[in-house]
Amino acid sequence: MTKIRMGMVGGGPGAFIGPVHRIAAELDGQIALVAGAFSSDAERARAAGAQYRIDPARAYPDLNAMLEVEAARSDGIDFLSIVTPNHLHLPAALAALNSGLPVMSDKPATATLDEALDLRRIVRETGTPYALTYTYSGYPLVREARARIAAGGIGKVRKVVVEYPQGWLAGEASGKQAEWRVDPARSGQGGCIGDIGVHAFHLAEFVTGLTVTELLADLAAVVPGRALDDDCTVLLRFDTGARGVLMASQISVGERNGLRIRVYGEHGGIDWRQESPNALTLHHGDGRTEIIQAGDAALGPDARAATRTPGGHPEGYLEAFANLYRDFARMLRGEPAPLLPGIDDGVRSMAFIATAVDASARRAGWTPLIIPGE
């Protein structure tokens, strides 16, 4: 099988998510990183090219140069991976899509809802593949939870509790990864809610198959002098009448990456934790509790397809990320990839951020979550 050639924008020295994208994309041998505009600083771009072990001539000083030169090559890139801070997502995506290149973007789709709507319009007009790395939808047992709920395994959903506590921004935001996340010019309208709250929001809708229709938001910038929220609590109402609670925080001292989702139905409940991703707890209405393990023979087809190793051999973050890239490769080859997040997920997530930030600032109480154009 000929490998699909990937170009990357962002991911220069000191970046966290760039190397993750590269590892995930290449894990299954279907994609190869061959070019990049890794930094606006030429020396840092060259250093990143060496780190990623690509041809030095294909470590470009900027995105436009990469798109122009790669388009003229017989072995030019087949798609663009966007791993920049949020404010650069839209211009990079538009440049690629208008050049006919598919896009795999880190989340959120853009820095603002208006930008996301512009991006959705271009994606629809061009018909060019576009996807988002909502990583946690790639975990096998998250896909198993989704399938069991869809099949009625816990009955009609009544309550959704999703939480994502971290503690790494409880003090001064120092270092490359922290500084842009607390800067409205680079992060966008949301701080914590745009960085990790949006993961929790997407996970709640992905796992349950429901859509949020109303919310009541309480966002705060707890650390003195901080311009963006670093702690969020949002009550949710879903289209079926189910209720939910979403908590996201980056000032919860001692917490690391505590994403967790619990879904309660008429006769059962499901519980999954990102820090223990290879176990899914299923509570039965008769009092029994069942632990479903990654690699179990009884897993459904979606979970089995996302699993690479036998039971007892843990898979985690990188493999889940790789599942999204494998889905994307499938899409590029004209095959179905129904679980891969796309532009509609991106617009819904940006609408969630914008609505929560605005409603919290106005103390507006219950507020409809309106998706423009739907």
UniProtKB/TrEMBL annotation:
Pfam families recorded: GFO_IDH_MocA (PF01408), GFO_IDH_MocA_C3 (PF22725)
UniProt-recorded name of the protein: Gfo/Idh/MocA family protein
Originating species: Sphingobium rhizovicinum
Domain GFO/IDH/MocA-like oxidoreductase: 142-270
Domain Gfo/Idh/MocA-like oxidoreductase N-terminal: 4-131
